[in-house]
Structure formats: structure tokens, C-alpha cells
Amino acid sequence: MKIKNIIITFVSAIAILFSTSVVSLAKVVGDKIILGAAISLTGKYSSNGVHTQNGYNMAVDRINDMGGIKVGGKTYKFDIIYYDDESNPKRAAQLAERLISQDGVEFMLGPYSSGLTKAIAPVTEKYGVPMVEANGASRSLFTKGYKYLFAVLAPANLYLDVAIETAVELNGGKGVRIAQAFEQDAFSQDVRLGILDAAERTGSKIIIDDKLPKELNDMAATLAKVKAVKPDVLVVSGHTKGALTAIRQIAEMKVDVPMLAMTHCDAAKLSKQHGKNSQYALCASQWHKTLTYKDDFFKDGMTYAADFEKLFGYDPPYQSAESSAALLVFKDAFERANSFDQKKVRDALADTNMQTFYGNIKFAEGGQNVDKPMVLFQVMCDDAGKCENKVVAPLKWASAELIHPIPKWSER
Length: 412
Hints:
The chain is of the alpha/beta class. It has helices at residues 10-17, 46-65, 89-102, 114-127, 161-170, 186-202, 220-229, 239-253, 270-274, 301-312, 318-337, 342-350; strands at residues 6-8, 28-29, 32-39, 69-71, 74-84, 108-109, 131-133, 149-151, 177-182, 205-211, 233-237, 259-263, 282-285, 294-295, 299-300, 353-356, 359-362, 375-381, 387-393.
């Protein structure tokens, strides 16, 4: 890649802190607009942290190559200072303080995960620093009255309610019996609340409501209950590791359930890890490459995916796509504000109404994107074991027919 971001580890940051020769960075250096980002390059969220960074970097490269950002009759390019938050909320908040108060950053990109975004948001709000974030979906982020937080993704409570709605529709409009297991983090707990709302709305019943263990490495106890009570739907939310654990143990224990719906299974690359054992899983996604949204920078999802794979060697998960979209939003806001004044940029962000390859983006008063639905894709494999993710819901965007119920293991 052409981009040369400023990547600073925690150790080197400490060295810089005590250096007497440091020239503090600012919001604009020459023709560079300096953005700050604390993301998870190590720790339990590191895989999705890398997806986030790759999405940011690809968009910076593309915007810079296509004419940059025009403000006040001059042309600027984006650059990013990165710190590794080590998947630790306390460290993330410390690094946000560092970026703003010492590095002089006045515009921020978000971290990975709702928990880390929750740690950083009070810091950016305190300093009046606009933050466009792409990976914090917890609905509680949008009820705090923050004025400087803007999220391009749909809120967490909407992630899997489409699965319950679909199951009920397939059941002739009658309520279904739901088993669920969730990580004890802010994001997954908001997904859970969305399922509870959907169950009440559709007349469905929660028959298993379990917590995933902290290390996300064993859900055998939940799956034993599923085998015993035979729910209509099993819902799991535990980020990448939780999705991989679920598929592995469902296959090992030969758990039959008519519908399996999960978060983060595209980032987990289920079929690469578990082959045909991942078949039929329904995956909540903010984005899929087959969707037909368009923009001038990445054209459409299929073009974005092909370009991304050339750069990074893998098919982009939605975490990368939404991260790229965050840079498009910042570019648009800077140019409409025609200023680097934080208040003017904040106001321009609040007035955003645009379409990107990732989807439509329009912010509600709380900062959440209210103009883009979630989608469900299903893992589908051929006889040779080659698997693809195909959008099956909502029906408006479906590119394939949902396979339901999931065939029993004895019939596969």
C-alpha cells in the first residue's frame, strides 16, 4: 500500500512522552489531516482490530489517490496515528487522552467493539472532538446525549431481530421457541435485548437464556440443553471467538436445531475454519458485498471486495467495509463544513445524508445511523465443500433462498 500511517505502540508512546525533542502533532500538518485511532492490534479483539485498521487504511489510500479532501480552496490528504489499545477499555481511554491532549489530534476514528467505544466516547466528548466510529453498535452509546459521536453502523439491538422475524414468518406467523447464549460485553447484551424485544413483539418464548464463559471457549452446557429441549431457533453472540466455538461444538455434539443465527461469523471465516460444518448458519451482517449500494470511490460492494482482496489477501468482512465508510463520512463532512473548526465539522457530520458502497448513512440525534438495515447471510456449501455466504434476508436484498429448517446431522 502507498499509505504510511503513523503506528505507535504503547512502549514507543512512553518513550515519546519522555523525549525532550518531540514536536507535538496537530490536527493539520502541512497538507495532512491527522486523525487518531486506538484500535485492538493485540488481545481478544485483535482479529477484528486488524480488519478495522485495514478498512481505514484502504479508504485513506483511495481518498488520497482520488484528489484528497478540499477545504478552504486547498487540497489535503488523510493520515492516521494508531495506538494499540490491547483490547482493554482502560488502555483505550488513556490512549484517547494521549491522542488529544499530547498529540494534538482533533478528529478521531473509533476503536473496535462497543466496550472500547464506550471507554473512549466520554473522552472525545469532554474535549469536543468529533469521532466517527464504525464498530461500536451498543444502543447505550446513543442514549448518553453525546454530541460528538457518530456511528456509521446500525445499532446492536437490531442485529438479530430479523432472524426472529424470519423464523416467525416461516412458522406461519406463530411465535417460536428461542434458545440464546451471549457474551457478557456491552454489544452482546444489547443484541440480547433486541431478541427479548423481538420475542415479545412476535409472541415468541425464550426457553434458554445463557451466558457464555468469559474466555468464549466452551458452550457445551448450553448445547446440551438445546439437545434436550429442542428450540426452534438458537441465537449466539460472542464476537469472532464465540462464533467459532459455537460451530465447532455444535458439530462435535451433533446438535440439531432448525435455525442457527449468530453475530460476527463473517469475520470468523467459519467455512475456512470449519468447512461444511459451518453450512446453514445464519450470520447477522452490517454489510455484504452483493448489496447494490454505490459511491464514487469504491463503486459498489463487489468492486470494493475485489480491491480489498488484492491488497490484503482475504474477502473483506463487514468490519472492514464499515471502517472504510467512516473515512468517506469524514471527507464529506470536512468538505461541507469547508473548515477544520471542530464545531463546524460536528454540525456537518450531524447533517450527513449520503450513500456509500457500504450503505446509506444518516445520523439520528443520538449519533446512530438510522438509514441502513441489517442483513442476514447464510453459509451455503457445494458437494465439493466450497462455501459461500449468500444474503437471504431481508427479502428485498436477498440473493438466495433461505434453507430452512437446517437438515439434521444424520441427514447431511
